Amino acid sequence: MKNIPIVVVAFGTTSRAMQTYDVMNTIFQQRFAGHEIHWAFSSRMVAHHLSRKQNGTRPRPHQVLETLAAAGHPWAVVQSLHLTCGHEFYRLVSEVDHPGIRTSIGLPMLSAPEDHAALLEALRPVLTVDPAEAVVLIGHGTDHPAWTTYTALAHRLQNRYGQRVQIGVVEQGYPDRDTVIRNVATAGYGKARLVPLLLVAGVHFAEDLAGEQDSWKSTFEAAGIHVALAQDGLGHTPAIVEIFCHHTEAALDVIPAKSLFENPV
Predict the structure, then answer these.
(1) Which domains are present in the chain?
(2) Active site residue 87
């Protein structure tokens, strides 16, 4: 379906983000030729930071939609770049309920069993580097009921790779750092590869995963476990960006063709 603008919405980060988003934007542009691709940021802090750097532009989702509505677009797809359907995703859904333009929402990365299967396949290269090495995927975490997404993914991973693969979270939720380190040590692994289960290897990566003090790396090493660090976030992996693209396609598919010729309500 041509000519429907696509608004790609990242939570955002002020560290290394634009390198990752450039990679992702290239893939979106190729996959959705004929559609306008716009970017917006759901984090108010990041939007403010970028506004100062971009001469007053304010790339918030509702602002992009206001511009599209003023240009006469009756519909837009809003593609979330969140990993789970947690608090930030539902805030985004509320924000883009715009009176001047209809929106179809592209779901977060892990929204269906098929998404988990696709992620497992996309991660296979890093999961098969060294069978003697534990692999620990570390996400943000949430106190939203969507915290169970992490345990569901861990179940799928461990069914295929056993206890060699663990998932942990940086902030709220489960499994926490101590639980994961205990699991790795109990399974008998003396080395572990820490992989950011984050779109961007930004602030959380630099401070919480790789920092020299009170980080996942330093705590693993204090437990006698040698650490290797994967340096890039998920957004650098084309097969993972493709998961988001599938969600964008699904959001496009639900827009009735005849409605494109109607005025928005």
Answers:
(1) 6-110+237-261 (3.40.50.1400), 113-233 (3.40.50.1400)
(2) no
